[in-house]
Design goal:
By secondary structure, the protein is mainly α. Helix content is about 70%, strand content about 0%. Helix 1 (about 15-50) packs across helix 6, helix 4 packs antiparallel against helix 13 (about 305-330) and helix 9 packs across helix 10 (about 245-250).
Length: about 425
């Protein structure tokens, strides 16, 4: 009996149909959220550079909350510390699901997006440090250009009409989610100035009760929301950025077992709130920067902080993602999927240079809200993200016809059973090329 030669291992395989369908649903929700995010940023910029900029500044600085609990915070701080905790809660849910129940539970599949995310954070940080090496104060912003904003990136895809095949969509989404995990780890470790162990230890109690409740299948909002709020308040009081509480609460929700459905239910409930409200509101308060006062744009473009952010996002992300992918291919002796090429990865790496939400958050933590450096951070993040979006648009439009043909093949269902034929063929021939 003749035997066929063993097929080479493929990088960026298509994956399974359930995972492809779930990723498509997630990205559809992020497309709407990305549009709202961009709209909120544009409105903020218009307000900050209009005769009503005083009203915008006053609204951002308006304080409310119980002073006795040290929660008398400005609206801008509530957006950064409170609403973004919802965003990171969804990130926690997504990460746990990906690595315990998704295609990435296979370490061989997880290796490439995780390596690309790590490379996509190291290279921008090194470029920023190299540009700002002569200013110790500016080095505090080294982590600003390391983040990828999936909502913004997907919004760009929706505008340019690029039909990315499922393998690239999964890669982009996973890279961004791992990127968010690394970013929140950096925030917790490097941007915690004063740590109070008392509130931090106390936060373990509501976190533990929340975890116990969800693992027992409890869905009652009147119990879970107060526990989550107390955990958030205690983490906030400890000096650790309060968004860390969101990730920990997301990690607490079960994925496997009898009550594993809660992860999917919570994500279905909270993702629209995160993408449609929490992140756009944060963008509205964080993106408003005047480019007409105090030297504005000219001063920012001469500042190494701004230049380091732009170079980190546009060049660093591309170098890091492509370099990590090459290293994975080199050391695992795998081959790219026959349907994809390095040009596709170049466009995707450039798309990963769109940093917004987390980049603005890190900028505020690094330099403080309202400082000249903070304004330059906003200009750098906005300018770098816009440049990365333009370059990604050019690169992906060149391959858009090829991507459309791949996307059409991935949705063709001649037998009408609800599962595209290409996924059924690959289930029958798992060793074939993808």
């Amino acid at each position: 009996m003749s035997t066929s030669p063993k097929s080479p291992r493929r990088l960026l395989p298509r994956g399974t149909w359930p995972e492809a369908r779930r990723v498509a649903d997630v990205l559809r929700a992020e497309t709407v959220g990305g549009g709202l995010l961009v709209g909120a940023a544009v409105v903020a910029l218009l307000f900050a550079n209009s005769p009503w900029r005083g009203a915008y500044t006053g609204l951002a600085g308006f304080t409310l909350g119980p002073a006795a609990l040290h929660l008398d915070l400005s609206l801008a701080t509530w957006a950064a510390d409170g609403l973004l905790a919802i965003f990171f809660f969804v990130v926690g849910l997504e990460l746990k699901r990906e690595f315990l129940a998704g295609d990435l539970r296979d370490p061989r599949r997880a290796l490439l997006p995780v390596a690309a995310a790590v490379g996509g954070m190291i290279a921008p940080a090194l470029i920023y440090v190299a540009i700002n090496a002569g200013d110790p104060d500016a080095l505090a912003g080294w982590a600003i250009p390391t983040a990828t904003d999936i909502a913004f990136a997907v919004a760009v895809l929706a505008v340019i009409g690029s039909s990315l095949p499922s393998a690239l969509r999964m890669f982009l989404l996973t890279l961004a989610v791992v990127d968010d995990l690394l970013a929140i780890t950096i925030i917790a470790i490097f941007y915690t100035d004063e740590l109070s162990f008392g509130p931090l230890l106390l936060s373990l109690l509501p976190l533990g009760l929340f975890a116990l409740a969800v693992h027992r299948g409890v869905r009652a909002w009147w119990l879970l929301l107060p526990l989550a709020a107390v955990a958030w308040a205690l983490v906030h009081a400890s000096g650790v950025h309060a968004t860390v509480a969101g990730v920990l609460l997301g990690f607490a929700v079960p994925v496997l077992g009898r009550h594993g459905v809660l992860n999917e239910r919570f994500e279905h409930t909270w993702r629209p709130i995160s993408a449609g409200f929490a992140v756009p509101v944060f963008a509205f308060f964080a993106a408003g920067v005047s480019v007409v006062d105090g030297g504005g744009l000219g001063a920012a473009l001469r500042d190494p902080v701004t230049l380091g952010i732009v170079a980190g996002l546009v060049l660093g992300k591309t170098i890091g993602v492509l370099g990590a992918t090459w290293l994975v291919q080199r050391f695992t002796r795998a081959e790219l999927s026959e349907d994809l090429g390095w040009w596709d990865l170049l466009g995707l790496a450039q798309l990963a240079g769109i940093g917004f939400t987390v980049s603005l958050l890190v900028g505020e933590l690094a330099f403080g809200t309202g400082t000249p450096q903070d304004d330059h951070v906003k200009i750098g993040v906005l300018g770098g993200s816009l440049l990365a979006a333009v370059l990604a648009t050019v690169l992906l439009r060149i391959r858009n016809g090829h991507h459309r043909r791949l996307a059409a093949a991935e949705t063709r269902d001649d037998d009408g059973d609800g599962v595209p034929d290409v996924y059924q063929r690959e289930e029958r021939d798992p060793g074939g090329s993808r």
